[in-house]
Design goal:
With 349 residues, this protein is an alpha+beta fold. It has helices at 14-30, 73-79, 92-97, 115-122, 132-139, 141-150, 168-173, 198-208, 249-253, 268-284, 319-326, 331-348; strands at 2-7, 34-39, 101-104, 158-162, 179-183, 193-195, 213-218, 222-230, 233-234, 238-242, 258-261, 290-298, 303-309.
């Protein structure tokens, strides 16, 4: 098949996306597909040939690694040659229209929030992963938590703080510590902080001010466990034990920064509950093909839902590929299964 792997974009998670997209594209080529990797923001601005020729003369893949630092999006925006307000680069939709399917290796804004999914759907272009509505809901942590709580799923108490006329000190005075500060619509733990003191809380609020609003969530001390879903079934759980701090951006993507145990060393009854909660949330939001849910297991055995990811990472240290490997599904097979479900779903409509 002719496949476009969309990565990058103008998101704080673009570096993670480019690394994962490169691995996905290489795997698809090894499976015999004519796969082309495209940065959604830059598009084909450096391509001198007709888009359809890219499937015949596959561009070379250059492997990257995820930097410890988040990208400078102002620098990314300034470096694009095509000076357009569009978040989608030159020729991207034209190339996608020539593909049999688009593999979405995007993360964060305009990747996981349903906008690119809606655009592709309006154009009749098959794409991988969940649809536009489920993606949009899952990207909004406040809306997701409202829905899962109403469905009887335990989640830490929270409130949304909107930056306005009040000072950071006034915002901090109304919060019970410790708490977790996180962007309402972010991913990869960018902007997330655990505040144990008023000073740490004010600093975390200051760091997130440009986002406009954040979630202030009850801190639950416990084990960090994540569970994936693939084609309607929960995968083995995986426990995350950071060597320092919590599971932040650095600990997620730097090899050796965290111990990851799959399956998680939990009793069978707990493993069963982990899978049930994960599937319940996945289905509640109307998600498709695959997802990954983040949970906390506290010292009393209570499970707390934190958030769900509709386009889980596909980097060397990512969790869903580790979980599928635990049930005998290697990385290339995982990529093929995701493609098959996308194409099959379109044929079934």
């Amino acid at each position: 098949m002719n496949i476009v792997v969309l990565c990058g974009g103008l998101s704080m998670e673009r570096n993670v996306s480019v690394t994962g997209g490169t691995l996905i594209c290489r795997a698809l080529r090894e499976l015999g597909h004519r796969a082309v990797l495209v940065d959604m923001f830059y598009g084909l601005e450096d391509c001198d040939e007709a888009p359809e020729r890219l499937f015949e003369n596959l561009p070379e893949l250059v492997q990257t690694r995820v930097s410890e630092e988040v990208p400078d999006l102002d620098a990314v925006r300034a470096s694009r040659k095509w000076k357009s307000p569009s978040l989608v680069g030159k020729g991207v939709f034209e190339l996608c229209g020539l593909a049999d399917v688009v593999f979405l290796a995007l993360h964060g804004a305009c990747g996981e929030d349903g906008r690119i999914q809606a655009a592709l759907e309006l154009m009749g272009i098959p794409y991988t992963g969940s649809g536009y509505l489920g993606s949009a809901i899952a990207m909004d942590k406040d809306l997701t938590k409202l829905l899962v709580r109403a469905a009887g799923v335990r989640t830490p108490q929270w409130r949304v703080a909107v930056y306005g006329d009040q000072s950071l000190e006034e915002m901090a005075d109304s919060v019970q510590l410790p708490c977790v500060v996180k962007p309402v619509d972010g991913g990869s733990s960018i902007g997330v902080a655990i505040a144990h003191t008023r000073e740490e809380l004010i600093d975390a609020l200051a760091q997130n001010r440009p986002r406009g609003r954040v979630i202030l969530e009850q801190y639950i001390k416990g084990r960090e466990i994540q569970v994936g879903v693939l084609n309607g079934k929960s995968l083995p759980s995986i426990e995350i034990i950071p060597k320092q701090g919590f599971y932040d951006y650095k600990n997620k993507y730097q090899a050796g920064a965290a111990v990851e145990i799959c399956p998680a060393p939990v009793p069978a009854e707990v493993e069963k509950r982990l899978g049930e909660v994960t599937l319940k949330v996945h289905n509640l939001l109307g998600l498709k093909t695959y997802s990954r849910t983040d949970l906390i297991l506290d010292g009393e055995g209570k499970l707390y839902f934190l958030e769900i990811n509709t386009l889980p990472g596909m980097t060397p240290t990512s969790l869903v590929p580790q979980e599928t490997a635990a049930v005998g599904i290697d990385f290339k097979t995982l990529c093929q299964l995701i493609v098959d479900d996308a194409v099959g779903g379109v044929q079934a409509r």
